[in-house]
Design goal:
The chain has 304 residues and is α/β, with parallel strands linked by helices. The protein has a single domain, classed as Vaccinia Virus protein VP39 (Rossmann fold, 3-Layer(aba) Sandwich), CATH 3.40.50.150. The chain has helices at 2-7, 19-33, 37-46, 65-87, 102-106, 119-127, 129-132, 151-159, 178-195, 206-218, 222-237, 249-258, 277-281, 283-294; strands spanning 91-95, 112-117, 141-145, 165-169, 197-201, 261-267, 297-303.
């Protein structure tokens, strides 16, 4: 458990971050400390500064919170990766990619990878692109600046794509307003209708996923801690996710159907999925986590 405690303390010396990019940094930090190989390589290339979890250190059971958060980060990341590989579309568009190491997982397999996010994140990624992507590899990968809720920006990014595509939105929907979600979904629908492919939403049960994952690790004390973590995070990003629409899989599924999509549910966790976080959690908690995640959903969405 000492390695997990180190997550809450450690940082590196390089680029200062604002609240948005610090939030984007959390998933990378979690995957890195779990030893996910591409995350370790990605972190080394970016050399991000600071500790995005510092605000949680005053909470009860603070030493165990990195484990809870890393469990969520890894199961969403690996579930999305598994669905990307099953879809096997030649291009991947990772919307609100943050500092995801997914490019190092997918580009070597022959996929065209495009990461899209806000300017501060994309600025970091493009500045370090030569450190991220090996010079001797002919990988097709790149990064684009885009606000997913801006119709014109989405059209500019999507307009140049002309082959079946897998769009991924991980940890994005809970923080968009209804209007912003509708704009983004409409842009994705136009793309899928034109070129084919699918849209993967790994976190279709975001609130219950956090609650039940924390409960599996922490037990009964999880409820109050989850409430505190959500409040801190909402303040950091300037959005209260509890007031947003599309808060659970039923709401998301209904909204997407009304927008002209077909939706297929897939268990978030499936047998055979290898997750490093389960080794840190211990046998009892790992069993609870598997059971919890098998009852959560990822969505594979196609345009009608």
């Amino acid at each position: 458990m000492a390695d997990m405690e180190a997550i809450a303390r450690e940082g590196t010396n390089a680029m200062p971050k604002d609240s948005i990019s610090k939030t984007a940094q959390v998933n990378l930090n979690m995957l890195t400390f779990l030893g996910v190989p591409e995350a370790v390589a990605f972190s080394k290339a970016l050399q991000l500064e600071g500790n995005p979890l510092v605000a949680l250190q005053a909470l009860p059971f603070a030493h165990q919170l990195p484990l809870c958060i890393s469990c969520i980060s890894e199961v969403l990341y690996e579930s999305a990766n598994q669905l990307i590989l099953e879809a096997n579309n030649p291009t991947i568009l990772d919307v609100a990619c943050g500092y995801s190491p997914r490019v190092l997982k997918m580009a070597p397999r022959g996929y065209t990878y495009i990461g899209a996010d806000l300017p501060d994140v994309i600025g970091d990624l493009t500045a370090r692109r030569r450190d991220i992507l090996p010079a001797d590899e002919e990988w097709i990968a790149g990064y684009r600046t885009v606000n997913a809720a801006d119709e014109e920006q989405m059209r500019n990014v999507l307009g140049g794509l002309r082959e079946p595509i897998t769009v991924v939105t991980q940890a994005l929907l809970p923080y968009l307003s209804l209007e912003e979600k509708t704009i983004m979904a409409s842009s994705i629908r136009e793309l899928l209708q034109r070129d084919g492919g699918c849209w993967i939403i790994p976190d279709a049960d975001p609130d219950s996923l956090m609650r039940d994952t924390f409960r599996a690790v922490l037990g009964k004390v999880a409820t109050s801690i989850v409430r505190s973590v959500k409040a801190i995070h909402s303040k950091a990003v300037g959005r209260n996710r509890s007031k947003m629409s599309w808060r659970n899989v039923n709401e998301i599924e209904e909204a997407l159907a009304n927008l002209g999509f077909s939706v297929r549910r897939v268990p978030l966790y499936r047998e055979g999925m290898e997750l490093n976080c389960l080794k840190f959690a211990g046998e009892e908690a790992a069993d609870k986590l598997r059971t919890c995640w098998q009852q959560k959903n990822s969505l594979v969405v196609t345009a009608e």
